[in-house]
Amino acid sequence: MPALEKIYNDLTMTNNPESLAASTQPNFLRDIIAEDVRTKKFGDAVIQTRFPPEPNGYLHIGHAKAICIDFGLADEFGGKTNLRFDDTNPEKEEQEYVDSIMEDVRWLGFEWERLCYASDYFPQLYEWALQLIKAGKAYVDDLTADEIRQYRGTLTEPGKDSPYRNRSVEENLDFFQRMKAGEFPDGSRVLRAKIDMASPNLNMRDPVMYRILHATHHRTGDEWCIYPMYDYAHGQSDSIECVTHSMCTLEFADHQPLYRWYIEQLGIFPSQQFEFDRLNITYTMLSKRKLLQLVQEKRVNGWDDPRMPTLCGIRRRGFTAEAIRTFVAAAGVSRTNGSTDVEMLEHFQRDDLNRHARRAMAVLRPLKLIIDNYPAGQEELVEVANNPEDPSAGTRQVPFSRELYIEQDDFREVPPPKYYRLSPGKEVRLRNAYFVTAQNVVKAADGSIVEVHCTYDPASRGGNSPDGRKVKSTIHWVSTTHAISAEIRLYDKLFAKPDPYDLAEGQDVLDNLNPNSLEIVTGAKLEPSLANARLEDRFQFERVGYFCLDPDSKPGNLVFNRTLPLKDSWAKIEKKAGA
Ligand code: ATP
Ligand code: MG
Q: pTM for the full model?
């Protein structure tokens, strides 16, 4: 595997708006499309892809990979991508999910050619079902769901024909039309494709095409009481939209023969399916069903809880679309499911924030620092770079005065070995301001330190002493009279184990939740410029981490989310892997 540095350089060079998911990482799907373009496999038709979410939950970072593949590859070859809602399960689907999915795809940076719904094709799918019945390729089965399962056989035993398999075409047509007309109760009959009950591929043992379900659909209302199964709807929907390359995750590989069978029997546009590996990330669970459970059981605060791997969750946490696209491209595409370190995602996000986030000073757990020789009532403005990585970000003025807040952690009355921050008699730099030397402390009745008194060197303004004196540490600060208070939410991994599915007998994946994934710090003290923070702004609170404003904020009552701490553990992992 090439060094991270190289992958990264390749990615940032090619990751431009014209080709958002492009990278020089090997990608067999790109090779296939390139070859099909070269051989004009689809004549002069453009490359057409689709992203087909089921609107039964919010999109997560795994979907981001599928989105980057579907939209990104089509883009690269001048093709087009449809957003198609695979809405064939009325009981689990809702408009709320449809809306959020559109918002998330756009946020990731992609725009669809056409907005489609599998439900728009219900009439056509029904006509094609009649056509298959007339051709003797489909039949109505009265077996119960349990019986169908028993008759299907196993991987080692062939299945058995249903006693209804040889119904006449007329009888099948009659029953199927009456199924549609609502004459039968849910689950009493199904329409099945007549393929081969002895096929080594279980998906080919007369798969169910339609089931009866008297349920209200979020788009078609009560118009239908029979609904097509995923396998019967998907390939034909692709075909209707002239999808040339239908890309999906590996678990559908065994369904591919069925995908082809329907298209061949119907003689319609020959869409082709290709499978790639699912994105799995350590400490992260990407099952929509289980994410829904987290929300319903209030284990998290909604789909957009910043600890969630949903796109709306990580967006609220402060992750950026650019970093996610870069990460997804770096994680690569293959035909083997694996697992990607969450630290790699964090690395790409940190790198993006390091380049773009504005610096600010914020003290999470304040301790008062009083400069005894600084004139009472005096204040001054110190000029500070907004981003040392980006001179074009400019500078700002930060107020300085006699009383400051510093972090409790930046002072020790009795310093342990190698503690270079403030302690009695030690001199440190207040970032961008002055050198100070701690003198003595004031304690509360319980012995806790409430104030540290110090003296400053007026000659060290700007943070350097003219006599060339060195200090071993620089700490951040906020002027007490100018500070604004805020709530800070610190997030840790949502799951305690690298593989959330690493379970003991009888355990559920939710038993692996990290009980300490959220810590709320109230009464943090921030430099006054942060009062104007906007939701889209990204900050590095110096020495503390990357932060963004949370939508829960109210004027005078700001809330900031920690996107990530500063420390990059991915570099360490890389080094270890290389060693
Ligand atoms: P879940 O299994 O969590 O319910 P799903 O695959 O059923 O997810 P869909 O809405 O059907 O969710 O997914 C839409 C598309 O996104 C599909 O093509 C699917 O293959 C792809 N996808 C879903 N999860 C991942 C993942 N972890 N990595 C890559 N692609 C994914
Ligand atoms: Mg699905």
A: 0.92
